[in-house]
Each structure stands twice: as structure tokens, then as C-alpha cells.
Design brief:
Structural class: alpha+beta
Strand content: 5-15%
Distance between the termini: 84 Å
Radius of gyration: 36 Å
Oligomer: single chain
Strand order of the largest sheet: 11-20-12-13-14-15-16
Shape: elongated
Largest sheet: 7 strands, mixed
Amino acid sequence: MDKYEKKLNILFHVLEFLILFEVVLGVTAYFMMPKDNAGSVAGTAAKGDVASGELPEPLEIIIEADPEERSGENQAEEEVVQRAILLNPAHVEILGDLMQEERDGEEQQDPGNDEGTVSEDEAAPSVSDNNWDELYEYASEIRELMIARHADNLAKRGDIYGALEADVMDNIDFYEALLVSSGESEDTADRFYDAYERILATKEQNESVVEETGNGICSLKEPYRQILEESGVSSDSSISRLAVALSHDERLLANNDIEALQGSHYIPYEIGLTTRENMMTAAMSLVGKVRYVWGGGHSGASYIKGINPVWEQWERLYPHEAYSTVSGDEAGEVSANGLARVKNEGYRKCIKPSGSWCPIHGRVLGSFHGERIYSLDEYINARSELFESIDLKDPKYREMLSTVDYTDGVNAHVLDGLDCSGYMSWVFNQITDKYRVNTAARYFTDQECFWELPMGSSLLPGDIFAWEKHIVGIVGKVRDGSKAYVTVEETPNVLRFGVAYYSDASEADINFGTKIAEEANSLIGGIDPEAEPPHVYCINSVGRKRVTVYDDEQGIAVEDGTPLSGDRAEEGSGEIYPETEPLTPETPEEGSEPVPPAWDVLPDSEPAAGESFSHIQEEAFEEPAEEIIEEIVVEEEQPAEAVEEAEPAEAEPVPEVTEEKPKKRSNHVEVVNTTRIAYFKDGFLDEDVPVDESGKLLKNMTAYEVISHTISRLPISFLDGYDTYKGSLWSREKRSVSDNNAMKE
């Protein structure tokens, strides 16, 4: 048989085997899928493979390539490398098995001769003629490296890596193996996953990360090359090989969010684990990702276990720049360069008790202007066009959103974001199953899971303080012994860090706390400190109000309504809005129609085109003052008794009666403080357990240390400002403390 005919026969067997393998079994690999704790693995469907029986594109490229058409130094070796890069693990295994079968078959068919040799005409074709032996040898090395990388990723990354779809894990293991085989260090390979996440977050959907440079050669686009270089990939050959491999990553091409590549919903904390460390991770995971929605998180939405994917999607619908540049035609204006600068109406807006703005309804006078929904499917249908990148019908999301009570209907905006008490309720519900935390700010510390602290007490990470209009969580003190604290809160317009202090705190501590909050907001939340500066609260005065006290037996008091005066009475109070009673619908009497709560009244008709109106007047959101009932006693006139007529007696002098005037109720004005400080009464499991190698307890850490420790636990995808952070407190590359003297200021 002519040697070229035999080569053709080998290729025919390759194609035949692939068709059979795909159609009958439906899988192409078996060695990279996690199976047990021992680290045995199995593969998944190979990228580019199709059940129709078509040859996978990378394998087709390899088979059709002719090494004789290339020239240059180390041509054979480079050819082997380039071809191996185009193989994924499944193709490597298939080719290896087929090649061995072919060899075994040729040995059995070899007639030989007396001398045990084969004539030149009858000799079997040498696979090495086309570099197949070298190819398989190199690809086998890649396979072994992949297995090692897979085990390493599982050990070091745990749930975040395990949540990925199996084919995505295969690809990442493959890229890391290519790096190691190219001479890059294991540390560089360890950082590749973070780089992959950054590439995903930076690119657009259906945007290729590579570009052709001519002669069929592709290279990484500059932004993505820079990401790899920052992660430690140093050599041009390594980046070149990754460019070839990434050019065939169809999942990377189609998506721009790591969430889309996960088979299960990943969260960076452990649900139900009652530790301060776990609580801080949960609390900070939402910084910059959730828009303030007045009433958001109630009606059972704060019971959601995990991070509602809707929150971040809703937040992204708000403009993050004050102005946009559009064409003159779009703006209805004519400009010299054909462009116009247009103000973004929704910039620095959210859903508030009044003056709300949302991406669906635009600007309205009231807050809850959304539609009323009675099932999860209704909500999904209402948001289907807005959240195209998230399939809310996926079981991993449906189960999460099913905790909301839709029985009597809820306003759709309840699921879109959180308000201050909705956020703090959600945080505590993540770390405990013993209690169901859910109430408005003014009643928050009254719940059975909290014990109040005396005013002036030192505060620890995980403590809370609230007043009748707002609630914040404590991250930690600014410095050891400081009376100033960094906080985390849901506040208009987006969830962020802030500062709270006692009135005797030093100005230096307050300023440094503000700097910590600003930079943490920037790094974790991608928040512009000028657009959304941290709120600063004086704990002693922020909850103060004037009341009129009536000096009677009941001691009735009402809010006076006059503004407080003083140096710090109103300092940094920000745009905080009063919350109503726990936001749950009233229970209707049997047989009657359900009555929506006061905060959720829908209009009888839709507004006319271009018109908006308030569904609830602003007064409806104010907590009514306690009604004063003045008891008035009216003496009833007694009927005259019948008396027998008698002879008139001598008239006695009648004393002069003076009518007694009613006493006037006296009253006086007092200033009361509604602020309440509280802590979780069950305590935390890591109360006396060091959280890092330094042996320090988290409860004794400063806010800066708590945030630094939490940042090290958060994946890159949770650091929205990773690529834009320009602060001095943290090192972006290492996500750790930077080498400066900021802490000594």
C-alpha cells in the first residue's frame, strides 16, 4: 500500500471514530471532571465538537496543516507546539488511542521476512513524518500538567473554581498547563484564573480577545495582553501561545461575566456560618453592587440565601456618568464635530420616598411606582428584557428568589434592590438560620436576636447602631482606642462604606476613617468618591429630635418638629429616609379583598404619555406623631331627689360660690436621642479564633485590617474597581496592604 494512502486511511479512521464517539456516547473526554476526593477526573464535551459528526475545527486544522509549508528555525518543534495548542484534552486522548491502535494493527499485518525486516516498499508510514509522535508526546505532557493544575485549583480555590462549568474548568487548566510548559512559574499559573476573570469583565459580549496580524497569525489585543502581563506572564512566546488557545475559546467569546460560566451560583461566604469573618465577607460582597430601593428587601426578600443576581443587574441600569456623548442627530442638536453632550437623567438617583428615578419609569414624585406581581414568573417576565444576560429561569436562581412571599402580591421593586434595614436584615440572615431578621430601622434592635449596649460603648465588627430613620453596620474602629468607626450601609444612592463617631472622637480619626471608606468604596465597589462620598454620622446626635412633653400622669410626648441646633446635630446625616412599619401586607379579614400596604398603593390608571405622578404623597412616608388624647371629664347632672314638702325653715346664709377654673396643662420641650446600639446576642464562633497567620482576632482588628482581610478573600470578580483603583492604602496587584505609611498618619 502506498504510504500516502495509508496516511489517508489513518485520517479516515480518525474521522470515523470521532463521529461514532460523539453520536453514541455524546462526550469526548473522560479525565478532567472531578469525581472523588482522591482527585480522579473525567472529561466533558470538547469545545467545538458537535453531535452531527462534523470534525471539530481545531482537529481539522491540525490534520489539514502541512509542516512542509512552514520554514524557519526550530520549525518542527514549533509546529508540534502550535498543533498541541489547538488540541483540547479530549482531542489529545482520541488521537493518542487511534495512533496506538494503528501501530498495533500495522505490526500484526507486518509479514516480515526471514531476517525480521520489512522491505522499503512495504514499510508502514512513520507517524513522525508528520510530527505525530512529537505532537502526542508534547500533548501528553500538557495533559499531565492539566491534571496537576486541576487538583491545585480545587485545593486553593475550592467553591469558586468548583462552581464553574466542567468545560470551562478544562479550558482554564489547559491554559495554565500551557504556561507552565512554556517556562512560566507555578505562581504565575496560580494567578491566571484572576486574569481570566478580569478579561471576562473587561471585554464586551461576543468580542474576541485576539486579532489577526496577517499571514493567519493572531495576537492578543492590547488591554488583554496587559492583564496577562500584570498577572505575571512575562514571555512573548507564552502570550503568543495563549493567544492561539484563547482564539478557540467560544465560551470566552460569547460572555463577559464569570456568572455565565458557572454551573452553580457562587458566593464568597458560607451561608449559615455565624462568624465575624463570614459576616464581613457577606456584608462587603455587595458594596457598589446594590442600588438603594426604598422598601427593597422586605416582603421576604431579605430572607434570600445568597446574592440575588438581580441586584447588580438593576444597579448597572443606572447611568454612572453625569453626561453622555452622542451624535448630534440623537440629541437633536447640531455641533461642530457632529457630537453633543447630553445629561444623564438617572445619574446619582435611586428609588426614594420622593423624587425617585428608575430605569423603567423614569422620574416620579413617589417611590413605589412599579407593578404588583403575584409570582416569580410574573417578575421574570417583567424583567426579561432588562436582564437579558441572566436567565432567571435557571434553577439556581429560581430557588433563591422563591423565598419571597408573593401570596398577597408585592411591588416588583422589592426585588430590584435593598433599603437600609432590608440590607442589614439580609446580612444577618446569611449567617444564621436560628432567627428570621426582618424589620424597619426604628424597631431593628428590638428583635430577639439583639441585645442593646449603653451609649458610648466600644463597638466591634458586626455590631449595629440605628435610629428611627436609618441603620448601619460596624466594620471596625479606625485605630486602636479610636472613637471613630468605619461602617457599611445601604444608603441613597448605592451600598457603600461610611463613618460613624462618638462626639469626643478626634478629627484626625474621622478624616482617616473617611479616607479608608473612600478607598474601599473605590476598590471593592468601583464607586467614585466625588459622586458618592461616604456618609459621616455622629452617633451621639444623629438620632436626636425635639419632643414636647406634657406633664400629666400619662407623660405623653410628641415630636416638636423644630430643627435641632448645635455644632454636630445635623452633621453628615445625608439623604436618609424614614422607614415604615415592617413592610408586609396587612392581613385582610376573611372574605374581604386583600388590601395593599400604604407604601405599595397602585394608581387606578396609567399616566398619560410624558406625564408622571406620585402614587403616594410624601406625607404617607412620614411616621405619624403619637396622637395626644386629652382626657376631658364631664360631670353629669344628678337628678334632684324628691322631698316631702315641709314647713319652710329659717333660711341659712348661702356661701358665695366661686367657679374654679380648669388647670392648664403644662408642657416643656426636651431633646431625646432615638439612637440604639446593639450586638448579636448569640455571639460568633470565631470570637477567640485567629483569622490569619498573625494570630490576631478579627474582633480586635482595625477597620483597615478587617477590610484588607476581606479583600484577600474576595474573588477578582467582586472587586469592581480593581482595574481603576488609584488609591494608596491597598496594593491592587496583591490585593493586600501597600508599602506606605498611611497607617501611621
